[in-house]
Amino acid sequence: MQEILFVLHGFVKNTVTAMTSSITDNFQKIIGRILMYIGLLLLVVMFIIPFVIFRICVHFTLKIFYGKLYGGLLNGGDLMFAINSRKTVINILIFYSCPRNRFEREALIKSFIGKVHSSTDKFRCSIKKIFGYLYFIKDQIKSHEVLKMVDYNTAYITKNELHDYIEKNCLTISANQMWKVSAFRQPICNDGTNDSESPQYVMVITVVHCVGDGPAVASVFKKVLEEDLSKSRDLPIRKHIRHSRPSLNLSDAFIYRNPLTSELNTRELKSANNFNWHVVTHIETKRKYISIVREIKRKLGVNFMDVIGAAIYSSINDYIMTRNIKMNTFTACKVVRVNEKEEQEILNKTYNLDLMNTSSLELFDVSYGEIQNIKDRILHIHRISSTMHNSIDYLFFLNLQQIVTYLPLSLLRFICSRFMSSVTIGITNLVGFNKSSYCGCSIDDILFHIPDIFQTGFILSIFSYADRMSVTLVSGKGYVHNREELQTILDGYFKYLDEAEKEVLGYRFEDTN
Q1: Is residue 29 one of the residues assigned to a domain?
Q2: Which of 11, 41, 67 is the last residue in one of the domains?
Q3: How does DSSP assign 416-470, residue by residue?
Q4: In terms of DSSP bridges, do strands 359-367 and 329-337 run parallel, antiparallel, or are they unpaired?
Q5: What's the total number of domains in the chain?
Q6: Inter-axis angle of helices 289-300 and 304-322, to 10 degrees?
Q7: How far is 395 from 256, CA to CA, in rounded Å?
Q8: pLDDT tens-place string over residues 8-35
Q9: How far is it, in rounded angstroms, from Cα 422 to Cα 330?
């Protein structure tokens, strides 16, 4: 409730200040704020109460009907990612070297899936709908139903074949699935050669986003790979969301970017009659870019995401110019953690998060046009981030998650399409792992990525494994003509990181480890 009051106060203060900018009498401004504040609060309460009562009735009816199998109604962020029939997913690509024969490898994969399956109730649930509300039913998915062994009639699969498979099979998931695993029987070849002495294999794990956000899902797999399930086995479904309270007071509360009046103008980028997603990836073989970003961050006094953001925004800007599209600004979105303790644990790779969606968003406009030098762009993005850190914008999306919990799907889809669709570029830092192994098999590389969130044009997912940067860039339907165009954008991202290294650090970083 405290967060809702903060957001209402911010909206009222912004609106009344704009309406009374010519009025010098502070008393009139105060009265205007009080009246609008009371009016908005009454509207919210009157609108929500009928849905709250109806939802409570649905909850107890389902509890009586299903008994112990009932897992509760979806709420908050979990519900936001389950509103479409084509559910938003998270993909985890695990590259591993295993000297064992085919049958032993498949037995290890089944063992791995079994441990993940037993780690939490959510991986054994299915989702059903009644009267416009979604709810969990426990123990509906068996571990053997999750796995699909993928067989190619070749000695090995190439990186392009892997991307083709992901684009066709792993960017969506059927309505009755919570997660699935595609394990390739053939080894993967990234550079045109195949090391028969130590072949590398890959499996793609596709998880419905309503299970939990990226760091939360990563927590489960991190525990399994570290073979430490003592605290995570049979975790119950969390039914309530608790966010850390904001360290703000009413005099500081303000809205940086008003979601009621700001335009989401990405639609100009979409090509007609083009309904394809595209995926490109890059995995460092040596430590380089993580160290570069850390050094730039230290020298300029900025954040990790400021450097990453400036590079991808600049590359997207280049691509927009090649399309000859008129856009004054484009909308950028950064996924943020509300709890500062969780954020620090993620940076230190010591996180152990509950399996649920507790992230929030920061939306801001990036100027389109002539590119500044990359150092100035980093500092500009940092100024925006610092301003937004002291705003209440992220609280708006947290409150939106809490309020829509009580609404039926039809209203929820309308609200999400208004406030969250057609963002140009989304950036998410999906944490990292230290070097891992599983039952004698070396885990060589891991990629996490989110293919699609509310029709976002491009999503850049950053993941670090053993201090090596893994990057996935995904384009929404119709935003690029082919995978080669998307690869050009990813190449531009690394080009601007190299330019930042040269401008800020003045030397070329080398690390042969």
Answers
A1: yes
A2: 67
A3: HHHHTS--SEEEEEEEEE-SEEETTEEEEEEEEE---STT-SEEEEEEEETTEEE
A4: antiparallel
A5: 2
A6: 110
A7: 12
A8: 555 555 554 544 444 445 555 556 556 6
A9: 10
